[in-house]
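Why show two proteins at once? Because comparison is the fastest way to build intuition. When a single record is shown, students tend to memorize it. When two are placed side by side, the eye starts asking what differs. So, the first record is below.
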Amino acid sequence: MSEDTIPQFNLVDSPWIKVQKTAGELELVSLEQLFREGYSITKLAHESALEDSAMLAFLEPILLRSSFFHFADAEDFDVAAFGTEARRNWIATLREKKVGNFDFVLDYLQHEDIKPYFELFHPEHPFMQVADLHTEKSTFSPVSRILLDSDSDHFSMRAASGKGTLDYADAARKLITVQAYDYSGIKSGAVGDPRVKGGRGYPIGVGWQGATGRVILHGENIFETLLLNLPISRLFEPTINENGEEDFKIANDLPVWEREPFDGAAPRNYPKEITTPTGPCDTLTWQSRRVRLFPKNGQVTGVLVSNGDKASEKFQDGIGCEDPWTGLRYSKNQSKKGQEIWMPLQHNQERTFWRGLDALLVLSPNQGGDEYAPKKPQTIQDLNRYFPHNMKVQVQLVGVVYGNQNAVIESTIDESIPVELALLTDEFPEHTAAILENSQKSMDAAIQLGRFAGSLLEAAGQSYEFQPAATEAVLHRLEKEFRIWLSQVTHEANPQELKESWQKLASSFFKREVENMLIGASPKALIGRIKDDKLISAATAQRACHREFKKIFPLAYEDKTQ
């Protein structure tokens, strides 16, 4: 392709990011427009939670690096003096809806040393790609290869006829998403990759973000969301640079567009199989794949996807797993005496809301929690230092369920939990414990309902068998009630009253569920039968179920008149 035929599409000033404005309308904006008008942008609004998550992870390092240069260029800036109070004031200033607050980001994006690296089809360093990537036979795939929801015509959100081409804006978004969430399996063998055997690139695992459980905090607008998801303490802690001067740790944490030399077909640091990222900026823009887009007549008509870099998942003594958006779980199998190993915590597909809530509000050891309980994401650990306690946020849990040896995407996990910011911190352990207790009791009662459904079958003459479908169905229906209740909980509430209020609400809910199941019970179950000289009927099962509910929700049954 000659110079005069190379398409021009720079992500800085070309519209390509889908957003929802505060008035509700959808719009396509450039990077420059997003960072100029962010107070009027409610959220990203792409086709899937995976795309939104990947795009937000791409935007975060832009804010981080531009902040670093903003401080580094300031006259007489004192790194050591930029402590918790100074950072808190900085965050508070940026949250104020003032025109020009984020001009330092615009300066960064327009800088002559930065903007060219956001050119999607640059002849030497195309954005998140390898310019001359090719196979021995110069083959490539249709663009459907980077539509992670549409490799199968049966499950695609797009009609088959719509998968032949992508416009540049869509291709840029899908490029970022495939770097973050691509499935594993055999890839096209790129010339220059020493790992290729027989023209094939053998599996190195899924995209980095797909190997984690994303925990994303959403504020009132996109600026507030970006600030909430900044790993502030980790990044702006002082360190000593190579000149013996005090500097920020982020100084050496480079996103892909600032790294040189440019990525080639070979992995970073070869022959090492696994690389430890330099920090969150590196991690959030991690190049799990080597990609090349093939444009023609204003559209992307083909794509080549090969293996990229495999990141280290291990976290030990503060080194490794620099991802600020994932919790960590203790790995007993990989840990040794005197060496604790922690790995990214993935979301559980079953009862995602309830189990996700447990992981999100996990009690730390100094709150009486288990020493090896999951660790909260770095961003959540920072919250109490930099944001007001009474701030309401939506906590989004995003994850991927891969199948067939991680070679296909089976489903996406996407849950949102409304909560007051203070309850995510370690400052109110009694409130956290009360919420977790209410969650656990709700699951216990749901299990009891599954037993009740099994008892109805027994009363009708069948063998008793626990009914898991009844448990899962009632937990799904109860989610809405719990979300509403949780959204109204504040750190000023009395923890005991929190337990009582939910137990009363949940007890009434489960009683109604039992009544509804009785209405649908068969005549045989209502009449009952004699087994081992005992009557087994819908009525006896109901009484047994209510006895268990009384044990689970004792505060709902207390007589306070005595």
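Second record. Ask yourself what differs from the first in the token line.
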Amino acid sequence: MRSLFRLLGDIRRLALPYFRSEERWSALGLLAAVIALELAWVYATVLLNEWNSAFYNAIQEKDFPAFQKQLLVFCGIAIGAIIVAVYQIYLKQWLQIRWRRWLTKRYLDHWLADETHYRLRLSGDAADNPDQRIAEDVNMFVSQTIGVGIGLLGTIVSLASFSVILWGLSGSYDLKLFGTNLLIPGYLFWAALIYAGVGTWLAHLIGKPLVRLNFDQQRYEADFRVDLVRVRENAEQIALLRGEPAEERRLTGRFSRIRENFFALMGAQKRLTWFSAGYNQISTIFPYVVVSPAYFSGAILLGPMMQTASAFSSVQGSFSFFISSYSTLAEWTAVVNRLTGFEASMAAVKRDADAPAFRHVESGGTEMRLANLDVRLPDGSALLRAQGIAAHPGERVLVTGPSGAGKTTLLRAIAGIWPFGEGEIALPAQARLMILPQRPYIPVGRLDSALSYPAEPDTYERAQLEEVLTAVGLPALAGRLDETAAWPHVLSLGEQQRLSIARVLLVRPDVLLLDEATAALDEPLEAQLYGLISQRLPKAVLLSIGHRSTLVALHDTALALEGMQAPRTLAASHLAPAPAAA
């Protein structure tokens, strides 16, 4: 029961925000319409139950005029039921897509806000495959919540309606027990309740493993899909390394988890199907077995017997809702658990983000300053320290040190996306900061969108886009701005790096961080681009990471990470003035 109440609480927490959102009136209106149609469907089944008595009485009495009349009555009920069924499905789907759109946007907003998507990875990504949770789990949650919720409501209303009918039709049963006469009113109702109650309890015992197995199956499917995408995105590197056999082994291993869990799922589903199929077959004849003694004794006619059997089947079917829907309920429970786990992971990350260890403040001047900076790894161990480091407008600073010393992590801390550490990072007021990684992010789509990312293409004049591409040595791309392609695969790494420099010329940041952003370029072109940045952004603070010795001549100051082991200390030394750009 604790698990059930916890599940209901999770469902309420996931579902209620939509019906309190800015779309609440349209959402509540659609929900009310769907509920009204469900009640109309139950009413139609009640009318059909009453029709059974008159129709079969007419057959038994060979009353042809009454038979014809009941056929017309049936046509009226059937037409109404068809209209209700069509529009109920239509309005359910309308509510489903509106709810899914709202919930998807909500999760995307939370996932992409405050670098949550990145911080989830740093925290070990406890919520595995967030893409699958947003794309598939949200869809399944919405559709199954509407389906199960409306189905359960219809079941409750149907149970109440037909219980009254069945109670009135069944009369009392005189049971002799140990020499005592025990009068049981509404005995058919109690028979349906006991039959369905025992069946529900057995179905729960048999089908309980389905919840865990469905949860695991969704996770394994998502893991396999993600690995397939990684192979596609890294096809060139895999081909160059002749890594296809290794990838096949890895993908086969991933799929084997899907196969093994699916076999376990098949076994659990088979056991539940054995029970539910047998239960449903017995349910077809059970009402007639219970009602037949009254018919054969002459107490009731054929019509009342058919009406009673129909009412009994409806009551027993309502009581058996959980048996017939157990597989769906198990899958729904797994989806709810995945979404609540995703929300919990994002909330934990946001709590950490709301109390950052680094203090990002305004410098009070025009320089960038690092004071008492202690950068740590996610496990809390020290990585590097910096004290009294400052860079002024127009100054070009080179950070050097051995690989793995924490240079990239330092830039992440300055950019505000690395949460582990303490100290003060001061930037000029209203300063625009931009960081270029070694492998730039180039989205798939139109080239003008890739160049202006993350801004919209119409933020800049077309002439501006063409000019910056020409300036960085990509004049051939200037005429392809309207072309749509998978640019990460069309452009070489060197071309991608030049494209990212073109973005810098468009954005014109006040603080520019380069994380080996020109490592794929030859040295003359690298020097030319550094000179271009200095020429176009003469007042920007430039902080670079690199290993080439030729970079020294392109910077004013060097910051070297000193020490044989972590935590290394960042120390400054002035260099000879950089030569003017060609």
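One difference worth noting in the second protein: The chain has two domains: 2-354, 358-442+491-574.
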